[in-house]
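To whoever picks this up:

The parser on our side crashed when reading a file containing two proteins. I've narrowed it down to the boundary between the first structure block and the second sequence. Both blocks are reproduced below exactly, byte for byte. First block:
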Amino acid sequence: MNTEPTRAQARARAVADAVLYEGYLLYPYRSNSPKNQSRWQFGVLGPAGAAATGIGEDAELSAQCLLDPGEHASITLTVRFLQLQRRTVEDIGGAPVTELVTGGRSWISWDEAVECEQRIGPLRLTDSTERLSIPAGTDHEAIPGTDGAPAGRLARRREHLDGEVHLTVEPDGRWTRVSITLRNTGAPAADQHEAIARSLIGAHVIADIDDGRFVSLLEPPPDAAAAVARCVQHRCFPVLAGPSGDDSIVLISPIILYDHPEIAEQSEGPLFDSTEIDEILTLRVMTMTDQEKADARATDQRAAQIIDRCDGMTPEALQQLHGVLRDPHAEPAALIPEVPDGVDWWDPVADTAVRPDVDAVMVGAVRVRNGTRVRLHPSRRADAHDLFYDGRIARVVTVHSDVDGQAHVGVVVEDDPAADLHEWYGRYLYFAPEEIEPLDSQRE
């Protein structure tokens, strides 16, 4: 059985990862920053009674989606959230301390997080309930002194978490409505400190349908509009999460997104800072003092990765964050083939009707033409050489159609040092439309 995620699933998971960590840590990424004194803004499901007593968040989120199921339809739910992990600095005697400095490096106490995920299904479209149980745990990591002997340690502690997922199915005319509820069923907490430790943080659900399709709640077809209007959401919203044209995956997110969301190709990695613009935030990180960067590195391992990535960013990578310039007045490229009716392919008239340097082919809802950036996925006729390019970013140079009506897209690989030379003398790599994934967002 193949357990590798499909391209649509991988795309949905990339967006879900951004949801999982959105707001995890805010610029300037230091524990003593006022912005980081109140954390965990999105998708927090508190323990029982926490919201009523004012010490935490509501215990559940729920979403209703509309389905057009086939005869053998089944649904798979992937529940994801963060478990809070308290990192405490202890001296050599095991006593908690605010900060420990040794060898020019600082260690401080801080709340980290551990990713939790549970896959449920595939489930038939009937009512069901599944339990979640995440164990408590304690880990220790020695802090080395200048002489190599332990100078203290980091203690990481996690509380036990319990939850449940309810699936309810009901007809609505020709459609089927599924209700998905994720609830924290853990023990009540005594205070805010305990409540957040017992919360499901950044909680969301990825739903995959097999033998069926989800209906967009943002742009439903006319005959589904009334049924969509009857769908009710609580603290989340479901959107189609696959590429354009794929309606098999929904992301139930605590952050409202549009259908078919995607991570910008120009983004080098997560920045966590509540939808801040990557370029602006990267430039701000670059202006931090050495001490501020050291404080951020001491705060969180993920913050350290951000600092290191920004410090090591090349001018080309920084320029890419500026965005993509496109001519809004450019005429759309003609689709191939544009050979006049009644003209045979060998007729000289056919040669003048096609222009590979400006012609285009539709891939999903994107018009692919000269200049379009794509990701390569060799499959249909791939040989060993083609497979070396799997996942690489390329730029389209020409679009052709052969005498059998098959389209061929000529590309040059972006990070190939000889790309300009290949383009100059026409040595392109050729792929079928189904072997490329458009990265630019022009739509028909």
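<<boundary where parser fails>>
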Amino acid sequence: MKPVRYSYGITGALLAGGAAISLITGYPAGAQVAQNDASKMTHVVPEAGAPASFADLTEQLQPAVVNISTKQRITVETNPFSGTPFAELFGNRGGQPTTREAQSLGSGFIVSADGYVVTNNHVISPEGRNAELEEVTVTMPDGTEYPADVVGKDAASDLAVLKIQRDKAFPFVKFGDSSAARVGDWVIAIGNPFGLGGTVTSGIVSAVYRNTGGGAYDRYIQTDASINRGNSGGPLFDMQGNVIGINNAIFSPSGGSVGIGFAIPAETAAPIVDKLIAGEDILRGYLGVRINPVTEDFAEALGIPEKRGEFIQMVQPGEAADKAGLKSGDVVLKVDGKDVTPDQTLSFIVANIEPGTTVPLEILRDGDRRTVNVTVGRRPSEEELAAQSFDTDDESTPSDPAPSDSNGLVGESLGVQVIPMTATIARQLGVGTDTQGVVVTAVDPNADAARKGVRRGTIILRANNTDIASIADLERVISSAKSSNREAILLRMKPRGAPAISMPVRIR
């Protein structure tokens, strides 16, 4: 089970040794068996109100929901210095690497008579570079097992497609329009929680398009239908037998269901699944920016009335945003006419735009709205994006060349002490000796600055779009913000060993 962490401390987890996915193909979907004539199907529940029973619907759907298990081989290093600079120096003192076997378990469902099966990528993808997938087995509700081939997988959306074969047609289900799902709609989930095959639970749609972290595909249908470990990859059905989501994750302090489960919407997954089946590359749009949502603090610091849009922290040189002239400090409000909101993030909108397409972006720059046309680039692979990440080293900090005088306005207002930048400090911090700014030497742990990640050694470069070359510059910005009755200021900062970021810090 892969953990998903959230700022408020509740553990979220992908469901079990397997996970979930969803698809929508736009077909007039309904649960079907390959040999059945769809025209003979009848409604098995009332058109409105609570169903008298889920039994008839479950009987039709359950044959297409399967158990997925994998065997993996993991190489275990016995050299205690493996992966360190001492590995070659001390040689193989711990002996040769050994291998062990691991297993995973999840759910899936058949989407065609010829045996294509959909599940989550993490159900069938071993974690760690020393793990290798050896085999995948699909088990039908009647206990029949089939070896499965991996047709395609996509880490970004956590989707995978498998293929099983037999002489006669498989029962299968089709996919519906998840965009039509409404809060309060009845749904049922079928899967293999804790290895208990063919488990059926019911509930309602608790929320549509719940965003839990801001990723390109971080939009879920929330449900209170019981979902537990092993449900990953299993379908979430509406009352007409359409797959509208794939059970994928839960919020839980204990690891078990507490009535907050998430399913990937069918409309997100269907195009990806279709391409995986066809053997086509998954192409996604990309701007090349680091962003933050415009929270209440950002809005206060920027002096804008609405908490809409996303704030650009950094523009990657040579990528689409850079070529279009976007800058750090810009706030993106709309993309191709679509509002950027917590439920429809910039990452989600752009990822679903064909690379090479030119679209207008409505942005806010220095308080003025303007439109910038951007030719969307191609999103790098997850491995390439991971290689672009960085770690901040806060352990080594600069020495103070002189006492700080920032116990006055800066200390009182922001809860930090700062000193002027010098060539010596610049070299200690690993930046150019011509870098201008002030350097943080201490932070009040109870101040908002501490909560926003300001640490000793952080360089404050700008404040409210004003270059900071001295403590007096920073004090003037603080005074101006207070006179305008602002409760926060926007600081452009460079943490030790990391790119510059902008962060709203509340004034005390």
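After patching the parser it read the second block fine. The CA atoms of residues 420 and 438 lie 5 Å apart. The chain has a mean pLDDT of 81.
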